[in-house]
Amino acid sequence: MKSCLSYAMKSEAKKKVMSQNNIILTTGTYDLIKDHVRRKKVTPQEEELLLSELKHATQVLRKNLPEDVVSVNRKVTYKDHNTNQEKTILLVGPEKVKVSKNKISVLSDEGIAMVGYKVGDLIEWPAKKGHLKLEILKVEAEA
């Protein structure tokens, strides 16, 4: 019972953090995530958090997206605080995933957690495979 209460408190804390740090999404990424939630491809906790993030998100055209914001077709270097490892991935649409080449879907656990956040942000996310704690170190446009 204690772990459920602990998880609920973490979820509540995440919601408070998100309302202070609104994410920035391209209109295409916004629509993709909204459709993903609508199709019930996420857990109830993720659905609640994503709907809150989408409600407060700033939508921009791709050409107006700040360079340091995580988005589709951007190379992202992040630190996984659970494993203490750094990883570099290319965030792609779900149809272009190639895990062997570190091309990870924006709809994956890591993608959903980081999209819209910027360099320096530390994100805690209740993913399907366990609680994520990721810090965005670097964001680059695809070469």
How would you explain this protein's 3D organization?
With 143 residues, the chain is of the alpha/beta class. It has one domain: Chitinase A, domain 3. Helix content is 35%, strand content 29%. It has helices at 2-20, 27-38, 44-56, 109-114; strands at residues 24-26, 58-60, 74-80, 85-92, 103-105, 122-127, 130-141. Strands 5-4-3-7-6 form a 5-stranded mixed beta sheet. A two-stranded parallel sheet has the order 1-2. A hairpin with a 2-residue loop joins strand 6 and strand 7. Residues 1-20 have low confidence and may be disordered. Residues 66-140 form the Transcription elongation factor GreA/GreB C-terminal domain. Keywords: Elongation factor, Protein biosynthesis.
Q: Quick recap of the structure?
A:
The protein is of the alpha/beta class. The protein has helices at 2-20, 27-38, 44-56, 109-114, and strands spanning 24-26, 58-60, 74-80, 85-92, 103-105, 122-127, 130-141.
- How many angstroms separate the termini? 49 Å
Q: Which sequence of strands runs across the widest sheet?
A: 5-4-3-7-6
Helical run tally: 4
β-strand amount: 25-35%
Structural class: alpha/beta
Q: What is the CATH architecture descriptor? A: Roll
Counted up, domains total 1
Oligomer: single chain
Helix content: 25-40%
Q: How many DSSP-defined strands?
A: 7
Pfam families: GreA_GreB
Protein name: GreA/GreB family elongation factor
GO molecular function, one term: DNA binding
Organism: Flavobacterium johnsoniae (strain ATCC 17061 / DSM 2064 / JCM 8514 / BCRC 14874 / CCUG 350202 / NBRC 14942 / NCIMB 11054 / UW101)
